[in-house]
Design a protein that fits this description.
The protein is mainly alpha-helical. It has five helices and four strands. It has a two-stranded antiparallel sheet with strand order 1-4. The protein has a two-stranded antiparallel sheet with strand order 2-3.
Length: 161
C-alpha cells in the first residue's frame, strides 16, 4: 500500500531462484503504475472528490484526453460551487498563475481553452506530457483557489465564543 494514500501499489519483479518448494524474488522492485498525484482531497467538496481522483488517475496513466475532459468538468463544478463570479475568479487565478510561472502564451491559451471554453463539437486537444503537467499544475491552482485556501484560513482563525 502507498504510505500516503493507502491505495495499492502494484510492483513487478523477476524471480531470482526457483526451487521445488520456494521461489525467491529479486531484491529490486519496479512500480507497474506511478503513484497518484498528491492533493488534499479532504478539503474539497464531496461532490467533486471522485472527479478529481479520476482526473489524477487519468493523468498518472497518461490518458491525457480523458484528463482534458475531467479538468474542464472540475473547473465547471468548482465555478458553480463558488457562485456567480466563480468562473471569473478561477479564470483570473489561472491567468495570474501562468504569468507568475512564465508559461508561454500558446500553452497558456491552450490550458485556458481546456479549462474554460472546451468546444465539444471539435476534436479534443492532444497534449504532450509536458502540456499535461502544466494543465495539472493549473488545475491544482484552481482547486487551491476555490477550496483549499478558504479552508486553511478558516481553520487558522480563532474560534469565537
Amino acid at each position: 500500500l502507498c504510505h500516503a494514500c493507502q491505495r495499492p501499489v502494484f510492483l513487478i519483479s523477476g524471480p531470482a531462484v526457483y526451487s521445488s518448494d520456494q521461489i525467491t524474488l529479486e531484491g529490486s522492485w519496479e512500480p507497474v503504475l506511478k503513484p497518484l498525484e498528491r492533493f488534499e482531497l479532504d478539503l474539497l467538496p464531496a461532490s467533486i472528490v471522485d472527479t478529481v481522483t479520476e482526473a489524477l488517475s487519468c493523468y498518472r496513466d497518461g490518458y491525457y484526453q480523458a484528463f482534458v475532459l475531467l479538468s474542464h468538468r472540475i473547473t465547471d463544478m468548482s465555478a458553480h460551487a463558488l457562485g456567480a463570479d466563480g468562473r471569473l475568479r478561477l479564470f483570473n487565478a489561472v491567468t495570474f498563475a501562468a504569468e507568475q510561472a512564465g508559461i508561454d502564451n500558446a500553452l497558456t491559451r491552450l490550458c485556458r481553452e481546456i479549462l474554460f471554453n472546451l468546444d465539444h463539437s471539435k476534436p479534443l486537444p492532444v497534449l504532450s506530457a509536458n502540456a499535461a503537467k502544466v494543465l495539472l499544475a493549473l488545475l491544482r491552482d484552481i482547486l487551491y483557489e476555490a477550496f483549499v485556501r478558504h479552508q486553511r484560513l478558516a481553520e487558522a482563525m480563532p474560534k469565537r465564543g
